[in-house]
Amino acid sequence: MGGRNDRREPRGPAVEVPTTVPGAPEEPPMQPSTDAEDEVDFAGRTLRDLLTLLGLEDTEIEAREPETAGDGEGRVTQIFDINGATEDASDELGLLIGRRGETLGSLQYLLNVMVGRHYDDHDMVFGVDVEGYRRRREDSLVQMAQRVADEVRETGDVITLEPMPAAERRIIHLALSEEPGVVTESVGRGSDRQVEVMPGEPGADDYLSDGDYAEDGEDAEGGEDAGYADDGGGDAGYAEDGGEDEDIEEDAAGEQ
Fold first, then answer.
1. What confidence tens digit (pLDDT) does each residue in 101-142 have?
2. Which residues have a Cβ under 8 Å from the Cβ of 84 and sit 6 or more positions away?
3. What pLDDT is stored for residue 218 in this prediction?
4. What percent of the chain shows pLDDT beyond 90?
5. Could you give the residue range(s) of every CATH 3.30.300.20 domain in the chain?
6. Distance between CA 239 and CA 148 in Å, rounded?
7. Does the domain made of 135-240 have the CATH classification 3.90.420.10?
């Protein structure tokens, strides 16, 4: 046992070990690109940097014009499609979608915020898709909407769909906007906002507001933890009646 005069070496400050993402480069990008030609170029480069920081370098990004309601046609300026360069890389991209598409919505929101802060007069909105996920989800929602419309016409009941993010509600509204015998309306508050499908004849398009496009920062499209499973809404996607008769404006800078 040491004596009273024994001395211990003083301990230095704890050394913090940086947290790294598997697959991320040793020298990741530290700030957004400063030599981009325009907003689209800046957005594409920024998205590439974000994927690099996440260790997803083995990916390809293609820019295209929005084509459908699910793309945000008429509101979104450009879509960036992310695909894996290999089969293994495609499998890893499920993490970018997340449960019910929440991670994908957050990635898109972050991208638009970064572009908006770099350009003072920013008026473009960019969409992001991963391995065609949004298109599959849109097809599923349209099919579900048509089944619900058939049931409403047959029974005369009001059917309330499950809560959805704004962009998905917009898909439902547009899919049924010209369907005879049914009308749609958004009801409820915030993340509990739902679409009601009820008997009636389509008229003015006041059922659809900006609040039915902004994606709540984002709730996004469905799917299980792996990101790809359960592309559907199906019969389980709606419940009988419910919701409040109140319209809430949502932030249009969000998922989109």
1. 889 999 999 999 999 988 877 789 999 999 999 999 999 999
2. 58, 59, 60, 90, 91, 92, 93, 131
3. 39
4. 45
5. 39-131
6. 11
7. no
**Model pLDDT for residues 180-238, shown as the tens digit of each residue:** 999 999 999 988 999 999 998 876 444 554 445 444 443 333 333 223 233 333 333 43
**Paired strand residues for 127:** 79
pLDDT at 35: 77
Which residues, in sequence order, are CB contacts of 95 under 8 Å at separation 6+?
103, 227
Distances (CA, A) of 111 to 87, 125, 213, 245: 26, 9, 17, 33
Q: CA dist 53 to 29, 101, 130, Å?
A: 7, 20, 17
Fold of 39-131: GMP Synthetase; Chain A, domain 3 (3.30.300)
